[in-house]
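Hi L.,

As promised, Dynamin N-terminal domain-containing protein:
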Amino acid sequence: MSGKIKQRNAANTSESATTSVNEKILKRCHSLYTDSENGLVNIGESLGMKILPPRKKINVMLMGNHSAGKSSFINWYIEEHVQRTGVAIETQGFTFITNGRKRESLTGNATLHLYPHFKALQDIEGVVDYLNTEISTSKQKKFSLVTFIDTPGLVDGDMKYPFDVNETILWLGDLCDLIFVFFDPIGQALCKRTLNIVERLNEKHSDRIRFYLSKADEAGQESDRQRVLMQIVQELCKRPGLNKTGFEMPTIYIPNPNKQRMRVCGRVEVLWITRVAIATSTVVFEWN
């Protein structure tokens, strides 16, 4: 008996050592609802009311054009490659990226079981088959307090999604705490589908939306970045709902060691060619 008590105390000590103060507060608030004896969920059931416990983490949805850098941002934030990235449309469904004790990947029904607040998603035809959850053990930054929701890259034209992507994003926007909208220097704000969804989200949740110009390092010099920002703002201001004062859109980019090496090698090569040209011209001059 005493041995079991010691093991339990040791487990509690190790858990508290790896749990931050913010995590403890959120877990305590959650336990007020889920307590088996005096929890608010049980009290609600006795009164004929269905009460869901509060979410333990902040939900952040990332949306934007195809290849705008949403998945790359998530990989950078948690410092682990959980989301596929590339020029092609890699994210074709909705992926929940959250922190856990062991690395796991869950499919649609398991995702809805893990997130009961999102069970109404099954009412949207075809969405469940394109729901996934990636559980990572990363403790980087504030990842233990955040659940990212990666959405499909949005494109115009003949692209057909196997579900109503517009309504799904709008529904998720009602439950998310923050909505990050990513624009990139190439796609900018030229995708009508993206702007239509953002405009509708802005009608109810303007305080949750944050705009970012991603891949800012691919926009060239500072003057080019300013020109890209102006073009994006002009497109946004054409929408009455998005035309507002105090508009902010920070520029962000993820440092790429390979690109930095290429730049250094390029500069070295240019310097070498210049030195050779100077040396050659000097020899020719002296010969003459």
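Residues 1-11 have pLDDT under 50 and may be disordered.

Thanks again for sending the construct details.

K.
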